[in-house]
Amino acid sequence: MDLATQPLTKPKRHDAYYWRLLATACSFFLFGLGGLCLRLVIFPVLACLPGDANAHGRRARVVVSVLFWRFIRLMARAGVLTYEVQGAERLGRPGQMIIANHPSLIDVVFLIGLVRGANCVVKHSLWENPFTHGAVRATQYISNDGRTDMLDNAADSLRNGQTLILFPEGTRTTPGQAPIFHRGGASIALRGAQVLTPVIISVTPSTLTKAEPWYRIALRRPHFSFRVGADIDPQTYAAQGSAPQASRKLNDDLHHYFNKELAQDEQPKH
């Protein structure tokens, strides 16, 4: 028989595929609805409480963290995904900069939910989205809008004792490719971080990747793994030369570290 004439076999869909598709749609709807409720109800109430702008921002970040983690737990209970976190107790220290790779759309939701009250550098388009711009304004998250003062704002947040989450790729990783880090993250760490902590994120099978619509869910239930790596002291790099040289060296080392760790995660387990 001519193999070219044989019909192609469609990959099988496992783990209650159609239920997961429905639950994913409901999750996205709930996320958007929650964003509107925060903007129209919760944050206006918080703004009436006493305190300066910094206090209002801290309250808003704590509220978002709590709700994000409940959202993750809801998706897990609904069977949309599974997850594991190793080393979460080492996250959330004052002046700590958390740096992570970015394989999926909801990595940010996971990390903000894990680290209560953390600040975060997020893409500027969230300020223009009606479902999210109320939250990013109230929380005083830092816009990655390409302006030079973004680095100063991020470093200031660290010097003020906040925990800062940053994805140095600036966007989700292209499937099948290694992450490519921009040097801005290393520059921020050298300017203001007390400690730099890497978080290695892997998703199997991949889902909600770059340019992938929400409804194209994985054939199997995706498993998210978050592994907190060893702390890095930025000052050991700052002492090695000029600021550009130190930034380049730190960024290169981070890039090598993440590629090595992710390659190990992809190896078959015995």
Automatic annotation (TrEMBL):
Keywords: Acyltransferase, Membrane, Transferase, Transmembrane, Transmembrane helix
Domain of life of the source: Bacteria
UniProt pathway: Lipid metabolism
GO molecular function, one term: acyltransferase activity
Keyword Amino-acid biosynthesis assigned: no
Keyword check for Membrane: yes
The name this protein goes by in its record: 1-acyl-sn-glycerol-3-phosphate acyltransferase
Species per Swiss-Prot/TrEMBL record: Pseudomonas coleopterorum
